[in-house]
Input
Amino acid sequence: MSFNLQKIRNDFPILSRKINGYPLVYLDNAATSQKPQQVIDCIVDYYSNYNANIHRGVHTLSQEATDAYEAARQKIQTHFNAKEAFEIIFTAGTTHGINLVASGFSEILKKGDEIIVSAMEHHSNIVPWQMLCEKTGAILKVIPMNEEGVLIISEYEKLLNIKTKLVFVNHVSNALGTINPIAEIIEKAHRVGAAVLVDGAQSCSHIKPDFQKLDVDFYVTSAHKMCGPTGVGILYMKEELGNKLPPYQGGGEMIAEVTFEKTTYAGLPHKFEAGTPNICGGIAFGAAIDYLNNIGFEAIEKHENELLKYATEKLLEIDGLKIYGTGPNKTSVVSFNIEGIHPYDIGTIVDKLGIAVRTGHHCAQPIMDFYKIPGTVRASFAFYNTLEEVDALVNAVKKAKMMLS
Ligand SMILES: *Cc1c(COP(=O)(O)O)cnc(C)c1O
Output
């Protein structure tokens, strides 16, 4: 596949919008990605032609919807190289997947057991573990990071011991763009018998993880950050762990047999999929994965790296601008501040010029505390962004700086 940027941009209707009279420059991809026509068409097709509930009807529509939903599950299995399709649990998104695992472990962990998280976690990967520790008496430990925004692996090794039961780390930091060495983190955790959950919300739009090769125990991600709709994601879990973990919610779909005396639960994946799921979302997630694979992850990575390099160089030419997250392995995220100017003010001015960036703590307050800053301006690039859009950002930031200093 050749990488035809103009053709790709034409797939995204929203990219031709104007904001405040300027062409939209969408650089908030780490919050959510835009959707190509192929995914939008898939959603319209589902509701127009075969909307029905799944796994329960003998009628044709229900069969069609069930087949499409299960085909999407298989597509996701293939994409991430999971051993079995039933190891892919459909969820409402990353947050839901993390809470599902945390809830399961609340019945497994004992007082004095240890959980390790990293210093650069999203709030959705901190709060559930704090709640879990309060409930079980387990202890939370944190892998520190250095000034560059890179985890200190030698400190991680010191935290690991026979009491460590779980390690939680994001694959890519949403606030800094750092790609964490998860293969190494997983391998070291397994040596002490701990399970590892990787938060892949920020990675899967840039790179294609291989679950079996990584030997990861749990991996969660959201469709909406990879060109799919909101409200759907996956939790991958190894079969043996899936069998060990108790169900999350009770309801329809998750049972084998129900009497008032006793209910027996269904096997994977249905044990964790109580109630009517986001059927259309699951199917459209499959369409989004097809779309990304048609472009190809090698091409995506190459173009995004070019955007990252160019944006980093150009932004650093601005006096007083500091970038947070300067490690050697990064996705296309540039988090920055200009000395003496509040990030929110920069965000507001560049929006007037049509440019969408995120400002604030990015749901990662511990990182902001580490750098002793209130927040940052974060420009996050996707494969459909252009070098010209980087120029537009740089010019707008220069203008904002002039107005504010
Ligand atoms: C976005 C994000 C989440 C939360 O994902 P939801 O889709 O909102 O559940 C969790 N972790 C990271 C690293 C993220 O970037």
